[in-house]
Specification:
Blueprint: H1 8-58, E1 67-70, E2 73-76, H2 77-80, E3 118-121, E4 153-157, E5 166-167, E6 191-195, E7 200-203, H3 246-260
Parallel strand pairs: 3-5
Antiparallel strand pairs: 1-2, 3-4, 4-6, 6-7
Length: 262
């Protein structure tokens, strides 16, 4: 029996079907890969949270300091957690301190810079030189001072490509944060947050701020007391970082993060 090959039309139809299937499936595959990376990122934060809790237990319920002065220099909080994490901050891209979705944020162009994509959550200028969030100055924040650990953010994902140490809800976002000083919200518009009780949750940035302050959440998750920024003591002070009220700066910072990751 004489065999016939495919006609040109048949080949074109097959190619068209493959192209349609690819257009449908590739975005699905991309979402699945990103979901896997987000899970790894959340797992990293969970390990950092366990290390922070171990530190607190070893230091009489005092939270890991944002930084400690040693001579003329300062040691950042992530270095103080090194003894509790087997893969500390270093100059490589891997390890607990790097989110696989967020490699562009760390300063990988600088071989000597610490490579990390997670930073402390801090609000300065409240109290006598103390931080008002779980990452504290020495001796300032203790377990007893955190009113609701399950709704108080301690570590966030960095959106900068510089060696930033902390994120503040101010219009400049990350302190000394380089050219993109805001949070990373590249998980389909969400960001992973580590809370003071050690749990990790993915949320949209505006969900971390209460509705009274212009956010979309039920409470303000950026302070140890969950007090809204439009109430005292925050309403009575301006942000030391760049002036203006804490409320206005929080809205500006979180809104900017949302815009960057639409």
């Amino acid at each position: 029996m004489k065999r016939h090959g495919f006609t040109l039309i048949e080949l074109l139809v097959v190619i068209a079907i493959i192209a349609i299937l690819a257009a449908i499936l590739f975005p699905v595959f991309a979402k699945v890969r990103e979901k896997a990376r987000q899970t790894t990122c959340a797992s990293n934060l969970k390990q950092i949270g366990l290390a922070s809790i171990q530190y607190t237990q070893d230091y009489d319920e005092n939270w890991v300091p944002f930084s400690v002065q040693v001579g003329a220099s300062y040691v950042p909080f992530y270095k103080n957690l090194d003894p509790y994490i087997k893969l500390p901050v270093n100059t490589s891209r891997g390890g607990v301190w790097n989110c696989p979705s967020n490699f562009a944020s760390a300063d990988f162009t600088n071989a000597s810079a610490p490579q990390h994509t997670y930073v402390a959550s801090t609000i300065r200028n409240i109290g006598a030189g103390c931080e008002d969030t779980p990452i504290s100055n020495p001796g300032c924040t203790t377990d007893a001072k955190i009113a609701s650990p399950s709704s108080t953010i301690s570590i966030v994902e960095s959106g900068t490509d510089w060696d930033a140490w902390d994120f503040q809800v101010a219009s400049q976002g990350l302190w000394s944060g380089g050219p993109t000083p805001w949070m990373f919200a590249g998980h389909a518009g969400n960001s992973n947050y580590l809370f003071a009780d050690g749990h990790v949750k993915a949320m949209r940035p505006m969900q971390t701020l209460d509705t009274g302050d212009g956010g979309a959440g039920s409470v303000n998750m950026w302070t140890t007391t969950n007090v809204a920024f439009n109430q005292a003591p925050y309403s009575n002070q301006s942000s030391w970082l760049d002036g203006g009220t804490y409320q206005a700066n929080a809205v500006a910072s979180l809104t900017k993060t949302v815009q960057l990751y639409k």
